[in-house]
Automatic annotation (TrEMBL):
Similarity section: Belongs to the proteasome subunit S14 family.
A GO BP annotation: proteasome-mediated ubiquitin-dependent protein catabolic process
Residues of the PCI domain: 75-254
Domain of life: Eukaryota
Record keywords: Proteasome
GO terms under cellular component: cytosol; nucleus; proteasome regulatory particle, lid subcomplex
Species the sequence originates in: Wickerhamomyces mucosus
Pfam families, sorted: CSN8_PSD8_EIF3K (PF10075)
Protein name per Swiss-Prot or TrEMBL: PCI domain-containing protein
Upper lineage: Eukaryota, Fungi, Dikarya, Ascomycota, Saccharomycotina
Length: 277
C-alpha cells in the first residue's frame, strides 16, 4: 500500500485537476491511514506536541479537499459528514487548527445546503452556533450569502433572493463557484413556498399569472411544475383543491389585488416558519 505522503500527493494533484471522482477514491485509503496515526479525530492529549499539530493541519486540509470534492460530485450526505469532521478541527482550543482559508467557504456551503433542503430549523441551529463561534458573521463574504438569502425569504422578498441566486457573476459566486451548484434546488425550494400560498389563496389561476408569481420563464415551465405538484389544469388555467375555509370569497378580483394578497400570505407563511424556531 502506498504511504500516506504518496497518497496525499496524488490527492492534491487530482484535486488541482478537478478530478473529483479520483479524489473520492483516494480519500478512502487516506482516511484509514489517518485513523491508524490518530489524525482523523484530534487527540487533545497530544495538543502540546507541535509536530502532532502540524500533522493535524495536513489532515484538516485533506478533509477540506474531501468536502469540496463531495459538493462538486453532488454527494451531499458525504459533504455533511465531512463538515461534521471538520468542525472538530475548526472549533477547538488550538488556534492553528481553527484558522483555515477554506473554513468559512465550507461552512457557508453547508448553510446553503440546509437552506436548499428547506431545513429551516437546522439552518437556524447552525447559524446560532456559528454566531457564537465566529465574530461579524453577517459581514463575511461567504457566510453572508446564505444568511441574506434566508432573510429575503423570511420577509417574502423572493424577487431579490432569486436575482441573487441567478447572478453567477457576483463577487461571491466568482470566488466560490460551488454556490452555483445549489441554484436549481434553491429556486425549487422558493417556488414550493410560493406555491403553498398560491393554492391556499385561489381556486384557479391563469398560467400567465402563475408564471410571474413563480418566477418561470414561460408557461411551459408552469405546466411542468403543475404536473409535479399534482395540480389540474385546462386551457392554460390552473385549478387547486382547497378546503372551504381557505378559499377566497371572490376569485375574480383583478390581478394586482391577487398579487397583493399573495404577498401578504407569503409574509405570514414566513413568519409562521420563523415562529417555530
Amino acid at each position: 500500500m502506498p504511504s500516506l505522503e504518496q497518497l496525499t500527493n496524488q490527492l492534491k494533484l487530482a484535486f488541482e485537476n478537478k478530478d473529483y471522482t479520483n479524489v473520492d477514491q483516494l480519500l478512502t485509503p487516506i482516511k484509514v491511514l489517518l485513523i491508524e496515526n490518530d489524525l482523523l479525530i484530534p487527540n487533545q492529549l497530544k495538543f502540546k506536541d507541535s509536530d502532532y499539530i502540524n500533522d493535524l493541519i495536513i489532515s484538516r486540509s485533506i478533509l477540506e479537499i474531501g468536502a469540496i470534492s463531495s459538493i462538486n460530485l453532488k454527494d451531499f450526505i458525504k459533504f455533511s459528514n465531512y463538515v461534521s469532521q471538520l468542525k472538530v478541527f475548526y472549533f477547538n482550543s488550538v488556534e492553528e487548527l481553527n484558522k483555515s482559508i477554506k473554513k468559512n467557504k465550507i461552512l457557508s456551503l453547508y448553510l446553503l445546503l440546509l437552506l436548499s433542503n428547506g431545513d429551516i430549523v437546522k439552518f437556524h441551529q447552525e447559524l446560532e452556533f456559528l454566531t457564537y463561534k465566529i465574530p461579524k458573521l453577517d459581514s463575511d463574504l461567504y457566510l453572508s450569502y446564505p444568511i441574506n438569502i434566508k432573510n429575503w425569504l423570511l420577509i417574502g422578498d423572493y424577487e431579490k433572493a432569486i436575482s441573487n441566486i441567478l447572478n453567477e457573476s457576483s463577487e461571491v459566486k466568482i470566488k466560490l463557484k460551488e454556490f452555483n451548484i445549489f441554484n436549481e434546488t434553491l429556486l425549487n425550494t422558493i417556488r414550493l413556498e410560493i406555491s403553498e400560498s398560491i393554492k391556499n389563496s385561489y381556486k384557479s389561476l391563469p398560467f400567465l399569472n402563475a408564471k410571474y408569481l413563480l418566477f418561470f420563464a414561460n408557461e411551459k415551465e408552469v405546466e411542468i411544475f403543475a404536473i409535479e405538484q399534482g395540480w389540474s389544469f385546462d386551457k392554460n388555467v390552473l385549478y387547486f383543491k382547497q378546503n372551504d375555509d381557505v378559499v377566497n370569497e371572490d376569485n375574480n378580483i383583478d390581478q394586482l389585488t391577487n398579487y397583493e394578497k399573495l404577498v401578504k400570505n407569503t409574509l405570514n407563511y414566513a413568519k409562521e416558519i420563523d415562529s417555530i424556531i
